[in-house]
Specification:
By secondary structure, this protein is an alpha/beta fold. It has a domain at 6-94 and 140-189. 27% of the residues lie in helices and 17% in strands. It has helices at residues 19-32, 103-106, 130-138, 153-161, 163-169, 173-183, 198-202, 231-235, 250-256, and strands at residues 6-12, 37-43, 54-57, 87-91, 95-97, 112-115, 140-148, 195-197, 222-224. It has a six-stranded mixed beta sheet, sandwiched between helices. The protein has a three-stranded mixed beta sheet with strand order 5-9-8. α4 crosses α6. It comes from Paenirhodobacter populi. This is Glycosyltransferase.
């Protein structure tokens, strides 16, 4: 038995994602997580969210006066005073849960995240700069990560010590976050194949896509829409390129909409 409910966290702000993204994700979690849990959405607009979704205000990033770049607001999840306690699994809104999430809580260790390179095909030109290549290979993709709330506040502390320097040195927040985690010995990755890329792992490569429809790789638990096509486009049957056909994805759309109605 699991006495303490685990936390499932997501974030929604602005108008890019509607409440259906939150509701569908919450249903996917409910269908695929056996242990007790709370589904929490940090948002600036709770309209349209289902009853089972706990809506909380977006946590303040704590930027100093004059620094208005809020693109890295996900780092606010590492506040010491987030108002929550326990183990949390963060999920971006644009992904489809396709199998049990319980294994994400069974792995021992402090922090787990997707290795970003596991979602993308090899980039040979990156090897021109071996040091940069090694760093990028270590970066975690923050679409899916697990942590103990309040135990990694050093990430946010380091950012707030000099936000301008951080955003100048690192292209995106997950690079900065990964560097801090690695420096503290807390950077661990999900087993490869648990979180898969729709484009690179489900859609057949090249002209093979003209003969086979997208399929779920064995062992996959979450389908992530890294890069293009975005999830809403792909689930409508879009995202075609001359070198890449996207065939029947009705199976994935059904999983995304599972339990609706």
């Amino acid at each position: 038995m699991h006495a303490e409910p685990v936390l499932i966290l997501t974030m929604k702000w602005g108008t890019l994602y509607g409440p259906d993204y939150v509701n569908n994700l919450a249903r996917g979690v409910r269908e695929n997580l056996a242990r007790p849990h709370r589904f929490i959405c940090f948002t600036d607009d709770a309209a349209g969210l289902d009853e089972g979704v706990e809506a909380l205000p977006l946590p303040d990033l704590g930027l100093p006066p004059g620094h208005k770049d809020s693109r890295w607001r996900k780092l606010a999840l590492f506040r010491r005073d987030l108002g929550l306690e326990g183990t949390a699994l963060f999920l971006d809104l644009d992904q489809v849960i396709v199998d049990s999430l319980d294994p994400f809580f069974d792995l021992p260790g402090d922090f787990y995240i997707i290795r970003d390179d596991d979602l993308f095909r090899a980039k040979p030109l990156r090897r021109v700069n071996p040091e940069r290549d090694a760093f990028l290979h270590s970066v975690g993709n923050s679409s899916v990560f697990r942590y103990r709330v309040g135990e990694h506040a050093y990430i946010l502390d380091a950012f707030l010590a000099d936000p301008a320097a951080a955003t100048a040195k690192y292209e995106i927040s997950q690079q900065f976050q990964s560097a801090q985690l690695a420096a503290h010995g807390h950077l661990n990755y999900w087993p490869r194949g648990w979180c898969v890329s729709f484009k690179n792992d489900c859609v057949p490569r090249g002209f093979a896509s003209y003969f086979r429809d997208p399929a779920l790789p064995p062992g996959a638990k979450i389908v992530v829409f890294a890069g293009n096509p975005k999830m809403d486009v792909a689930l409508r049957g879009g995202g075609q390129k001359w070198y890449r056909r996207i065939g029947d994805v009705s199976w994935l759309r059904k999983l995304w909409e599972q339990g609706r109605g």
